[in-house]
Amino acid sequence: MTEATGIVGEFLSLKAETDADILAMQCGDFYEFFGDDAELVGEELDLKVTSKSSQGQSYPMAGVPLQDLTPYLKALVERGYRVAVADQYETDDGHAREIVRVVTPGTLLETSDADAQYLAAIVVDATAGSSGRSGTGGGSSAGETTYGLAFADITTGRFLVANAEDVDEAMTECYRFDPVEILPGPRVRTDDELLTQLRDRLDARLSLADTESFAPKRATHRLRGQFGDETVDRLELTEATRSAAGAVLSYVEETGAGVLASMTRLQTHRGDDHVTLDVTTQRNLELTETMHGDRSGSLFATIDHTETSAGGRLLKEWLQRPRRSLEVLETRQASVEALAASALARDELREVLGEAYDLERLASRATHGSADAQDLLSVRDTLAVLPRVAECVESTPDLAASPLTDILERADREQAAALQNRLAEALADDPPSTVRQGGLLARGYDDELDDLIDRHEAVIEWLETLADREKREHDLSHVSVDRNKTDGYYIQVGRSVADQVPEHYEEIKQLKNSKRFTTDELEAKEREILRLEEQRGELEYELFQRLRADVADHATLLQDVGRTLATIDALASLASHAAENGWVRPTVHDGDALEITQGRHPVVEQTTEFVPNDVSMDRNRGFLLVTGPNMSGKSTYMRQVACIVLLAQIGGFVPAREAEIGLVDGIFTRVGALDELAQGRSTFMVEMSELSNILHAATEESLVILDEVGRGTATYDGISIAWAATEYLHNEIGAKTLFATHYHELTGLADTLPRVANVHVAADERDGDVTFLRTVRDGPTDRSYGIHVAGLAGVPDPVVDRARDVLDRLREEKAIEAKGGGSSDPVQTVFDVSSGSFRGPVNADGGEPEPDAGETLDADTQAVLEELSSVDVNATPPVELLTKVQEWQAKLDD
Ligand code: ADP
Ligand code: MG
C-alpha cells in the first residue's frame, strides 16, 4: 500500500502524533477530517462524508467551516471524545499545520452547561504499605490504601485537592464533585475494581494522562510553580495529593486550554468538614436527579430558584457537600432568615442578580484569550450588579444586620468599580462578536484611534455624497456609487447617459443597462479607506487585547465578585423557597436530639396533599423501627427525615413546623434498588454490599436509613440479617437509625434493646377496605395489607376476594393452633422474639421447616403460607402476583 501524501498524508502523520480520538485539521477556511475520523464524525454529527484521493487511494473526508468548529467540537466532546485541533500557519514557502489544542471533556472551555465541569485525578498513596485494597466495605482499616485527589474546573478556575482514607471515601469525594473527566494515576490504572466503580458510578471519561506527570517530584514542582511555595507548604499535602494536583495541572497545560492563569487558588477539600453522603445516598435521596435519571423531581430542582447559573452551581454544590460546622450553618441560616423576612428587598435583589453573568466563567475566557468584546461587556455589566446588590442589602435594616454584609465584604468593591469604569470607558455600546474588524471600542478612549476613526468616517462621508456631487457637477442622471469585491469602488452610470460622462471618467466595466467607471480621485480615496480600515482594525485589536489582559489580570477579583453574587443568589433562593412553602429555620446543635414537629417531604409536598409527621429521637431513643402496611408511607417518612437533616446542614430552612436538629457527620441510606437492577447487578448482592458499607462507615454521629433490608432473600435469611444488623447498629455503632421493615417479628426488639422504639404508619381497615392515614404513631403494627395492595395493583376482584378468604382461613387455623392466644399474624409465631431464634416450623439453625408434633397445617398450606409472607408485593408485577395467587389456590384446593 502506498503512503498517503499531500493533505491526507499530513493529516495522518499529525494524527499519529496525538492520542486524541479525532483530529480536526485546518485547511484554509475549513477544518477537515479524513479517513476513520471523517466517518466517525460524519456519523456522530450527521455531516456529509465525501472522499479525497491520494496516491490512487480514496479517503473519506468531512469538513466544517472554520467559524463553525466550536459547536461541533462541543458535541463531540460531550459525547466523550477527545478531539485534537490542528491550526494552519504561514511559512516562507506556503503553510504548515500543528496541533494547538486537545479538547477533552474536562478541558472544554466553550461549555454552555451551567454545571461545574470538574477534571479530576485520583492517585493511590504509594507510601502506604500494601497495594492490596480491602474492596468495597470489606477488611480492616489498618494498612488500608489511601488516595489523593484533585479537582479542577477550568471554566471557573476552581482548584481543590482532597485526601481519602479508603476507596469508599475516594468514591464519595468523586461523587461529590461529579467530574466529567478523570485521570487515573499509574496504580489506579491497574486496579480493576476501582476502575469499574469509577466507570459504573460516574458519568466521566477516563483519560490516560502522561505517567510522568504523576511523578511526585515533578508534580510537586508543577504545583509550587502554579500556586507558590508558601501555599503548598501551608496546606501540608500528602504525596498522593500533590501527585494528583500536579498531574491535573500538566494535563490542562498539555491539552493547550491556556487557562492556567485563572487558577490562582489552591483549596483543600476536607471530608471532615462535610457530611459524608455516600454514592448510594446521594442517589437514594434523589439529590440532583431522580432514581430514573431525571433532573426535574430531584431535591435540587425543587429548591432551586436561583437567578444565575453561578448561583445554581453553588446551591447544587451545597447540597452535594453539606457542612458540619455550626458556625457555617448558623451564618447561612441567619442570612436566609433575614432574606425570608424581607420579601420586597429579596425580590429586588433577585431581579438585580438576574442581570449578572457568569463571572467565574468569563474570567476563564479572558485568561484563555477567547473572550470577545461582548464578553467584556458582560463583565462590565456584572461588576455593575455588585454595588446595586450592596445598596439593596445596606438599605434594608434586616439585611444590613445579617451576615450578608460580611459576604459582600469578600469582594473588593473599589477594585471592582475601577475595572468596571475602565471597561465602560473603553467598550463600544454594541460591539460585534468578531474581534478583528473594529467597532469594539468607544470614542474618547484612545486619541490615536479617535483620529483614525475621524479620518475613516470623513472618507466614508465623502464616498456617500459622491454620487450627488457628480450628478450636480456633470449634470448626470442615474448615477450611483458602490463597492464590490472585484471592482472595488466604482461610479455606475445608466446606459442612456453613459456617453455624457466627463473625460476623466475611466471605464472599467460594461453591463447590460449600465457602465462602471472610476476616477483617479476615487482610486486614491479607495486606497485611503482600505489603509484606514486596516489601521483601525489593528489598533482596535491591540487596544482590545490590552483591555482583555487587564481583565485577565483581575481573574481573582472576578472570581470573588462572582462567588459573592452566587452566594447571595443561592441564599436568596433558599429564602424564597422557605417563604413560599412555609419552611422554618431549624435549631441546629451538637447534641443527639432530633425533634421534628409536623415535618414534610420537601419534594413530595410539592405535588401531594401531604400529611405532616413528627419524629422524635435522642440518645435513649436512637433507633426507630418503622412498620406499617405497604404503600402507607414508610419510605417517604424516612426519606423526609433524611432530607430535613440534609437541608438543615446546608444552612437552609426545612419543611416542618418546628425542628431541632443535632448535626450528623454522615447520612447513609439503603433504599430501593431500581437503578442497580438496570445495571444488571443482583439486588440482593447490592443490598448486602450497601449494608456492609453502612456498617463500616457509619459512626455514633451518623444518620442511617434502612428500608426493607433483607428483602432480596428468603424470609428467614432476611429476618436474620435484619435482626443482626439492628443489633450491630444499636450496640456497636450507636448511629441514629430509622429502619422500615415488613418483618413484624423485629418489632419485638424494642423489648430487649433499650434504644429501640417502634413507630408505625397508621392505616384504617374497615370491611376489607384500607384507608391510609399517613400518620406516624408510636408502637408497632401487625399487618401487612398485602392483599389490599394486590387489589390496588389491578389484580381482578375475584382473585383478591379469594385471597382474603384464604388469608382469613390461614389466620383462623393459626389462631386455633396457637390455642387462641398470641398474634393473628401467621409468621410471627415462627420467630421467638425474646430469644432471637426460630421455633415452630423452622429449625433453630434456620434449616428447612419440618412439621412438628403440634403442627395442624399440612405441608402444602405451610408452603403457600411461607411464599405468601415472603412475596415482595412492591417488586412483583401484577400479572405475576395473579399467577402466584392462582398457584396457591390450586395447592390449597388439592
Ligand atoms: P411504603 O414505603 O410504606 O410502601 P411509600 O413511602 O412508598 O410507602 O409511600 C406510598 C405513597 O404514599 C407514595 O406515593 C407517597 O407519595 C404517599 N405518601 C407517603 N407519605 C405521605 C404523606 N405523609 N402524605 C401524603 N402522601 C404520602
Ligand atoms: Mg417503601
Automatic annotation (TrEMBL):
User: From the UniProt record, which GO molecular function terms apply?
Assistant: ATP binding; ATP-dependent DNA damage sensor activity; damaged DNA binding; mismatched DNA binding
Q: Which UniProt keywords apply?
A: ATP-binding, Coiled coil, DNA damage, DNA repair, DNA-binding, Nucleotide-binding
* GO terms (BP aspect): mismatch repair
For region Disordered, the annotated ranges are 817-859
Q: Where is composition skewed (Polar residues) in this entry?
A: 825-837
Q: Per its UniProt record, what SUPFAM superfamilies does this chain match?
A: DNA repair protein MutS, domain I, DNA repair protein MutS, domain II, DNA repair protein MutS, domain III, P-loop containing nucleoside triphosphate hydrolases
Acidic residues bias: start-end ranges = 847-858
The source's superkingdom equals: Archaea
Q: Which intervals of the chain form a coiled coil?
A: 508-542
Is Disulfide bond a UniProt keyword of this protein?
A: no
Q: Which Pfam families match?
A: MutS_I, MutS_II, MutS_III, MutS_IV, MutS_V
CDD domains reported in the protein's UniProt record: ABC_MutS1
- Show where the DNA mismatch repair proteins mutS family domain sits: 702-718
Q: Which residues are involved in binding ATP?
A: 628-635
Q: Which family does it belong to?
A: Belongs to the DNA mismatch repair MutS family.
Give a short account of what the protein does: This protein is involved in the repair of mismatches in DNA. It is possible that it carries out the mismatch recognition step. This protein has a weak ATPase activity.
Q: What is this protein called?
A: DNA mismatch repair protein MutS
Q: Which organism is it from?
A: Natronosalvus hydrolyticus
